[in-house]
Structure to design on (314 residues):
C-alpha cells in the first residue's frame, strides 16, 4: 500500500489538471467570453434543434473590417452589429448568426488594416449561408446592416433571398424604423449639428462606448483635419441643415475609393480616418445607450408584429 501512495497522488493531480472545473490558471489566460443565449457560434447542435421548436427567425449582421480613426477598432462595425443582435435575441427568441467579418470598404484602403471584398462576393456568401440555415429549418431572415457602405449590398441580399430561395428576408434597419421611439431619440443629449460628424465620429463612438467599452481608446482620439473637394465643401452647410437633396448628392460623391478619381477616399479627406470635424471625445456612454436601446426596442417590436402576422410554420 505504501508503494501505491505516490501513484495514487500522481493520478489525483492529473485528474485535477484535466477537470473542467479546474482553476483559471490551468486554462487559456486570454479567454474571457461568456456563453450567450441564441448566439450560433456558442451553441451546440441540441440547442439549435431546441430553438427551432420555438422560432424560424435568424438575425444576420452584415458588417465590415475597416479603419475607424485612431480610437476605435477596425472591427467596430462587426462587433457593434453582433452585440446589437445579441441584445435583440435576449428579448426575442431568434438565432443570431454572424457569417462574415469584412464588407465593402474600398474607400478606407488608405489606412492599414482595412479589408474590402467585392459586392458580388459578399452577396454570394450571405445567400449561400442562408441556404444552409433554410435546409435546417430556419425560414425568416432579419438582415442587420452594421456598415453604411453595405446599404446597397444588404438590399440585394434581401431581394436575392426572397427571389431565389424558400426563405423570407427583410432589412431589419428599414423595417424597424416605424417602431423607433423618436421622442426618446430627440430628447437624448447630443452635440449640435453644425459640423460634419459621420464615420468614426461621436455617434459611432458613443455606441461603441456602450456596446464594447473595453475596445474604445478615447485617450488617443483627436479632431480630424477634414479636406474635401471645393464643390462638396460648398454644399456642406445644406447637408448639415438637413436638405435631403444636398445630402443625397453629397453622399453619392463623398467617401468613395481613391481609384474613382473623386478625391473623396477617407485618406484623401481626413487626417485620422474619421469623417468629421468634431472631437470624438465628445461621445458619451449615455448617448450610445439610448441609441442602442431605441434600436433594440424597435427591432423587438417588429419581430413581435411579424410573429403576429405570420406565426412560425411547423
Amino acid at each position: 500500500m505504501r508503494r501505491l501512495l505516490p501513484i495514487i497522488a500522481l493520478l489525483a493531480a492529473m485528474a485535477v489538471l484535466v477537470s473542467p472545473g479546474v482553476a483559471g490558471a490551468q486554462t487559456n489566460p486570454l479567454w474571457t467570453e461568456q456563453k450567450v443565449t441564441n448566439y450560433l457560434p456558442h451553441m451546440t447542435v441540441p440547442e439549435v434543434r431546441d430553438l427551432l421548436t420555438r422560432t424560424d427567425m435568424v438575425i444576420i449582421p452584415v458588417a465590415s473590417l475597416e479603419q475607424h480613426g485612431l480610437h476605435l477598432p477596425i472591427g467596430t462595425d462587426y462587433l457593434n452589429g453582433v452585440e446589437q443582435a445579441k441584445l435583440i435575441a435576449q428579448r426575442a427568441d431568434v438565432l443570431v448568426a454572424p457569417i462574415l467579418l469584412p464588407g465593402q470598404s474600398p474607400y478606407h484602403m488608405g489606412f492599414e488594416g482595412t479589408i474590402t471584398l467585392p459586392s458580388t462576393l459578399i452577396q454570394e456568401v450571405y445567400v449561400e449561408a442562408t441556404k444552409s440555415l433554410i435546409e435546417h429549418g430556419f425560414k425568416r431572415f432579419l438582415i442587420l446592416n452594421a456598415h453604411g457602405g453595405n446599404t446597397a449590398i444588404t438590399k440585394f441580399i434581401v431581394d436575392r433571398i426572397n427571389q431565389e430561395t424558400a426563405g423570407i428576408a427583410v432589412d431589419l434597419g428599414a423595417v424597424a424604423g416605424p417602431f423607433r421611439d423618436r421622442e426618446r431619440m430627440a430628447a437624448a443629449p447630443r452635440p449640435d449639428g453644425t459640423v460634419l460628424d459621420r464615420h468614426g465620429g461621436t455617434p459611432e463612438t458613443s455606441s461603441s462606448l456602450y456596446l464594447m467599452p473595453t475596445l474604445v481608446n478615447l485617450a488617443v482620439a483627436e479632431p480630424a483635419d477634414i479636406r474635401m473637394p471645393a464643390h462638396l465643401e460648398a454644399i456642406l452647410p445644406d447637408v448639415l441643415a438637413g436638405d435631403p437633396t444636398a445630402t443625397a448628392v453629397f453622399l453619392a460623391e463623398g467617401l468613395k475609393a481613391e481609384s474613382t478619381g473623386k478625391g473623396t477616399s477617407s485618406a484623401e479627406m481626413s487626417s485620422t480616418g474619421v469623417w468629421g470635424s468634431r472631437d470624438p471625445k465628445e461621445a458619451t456612454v449615455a448617448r450610445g445607450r439610448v441609441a442602442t436601446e431605441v434600436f433594440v426596442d424597435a427591432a423587438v417590436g417588429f419581430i413581435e408584429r411579424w410573429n403576429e402576422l405570420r406565426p412560425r410554420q411547423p
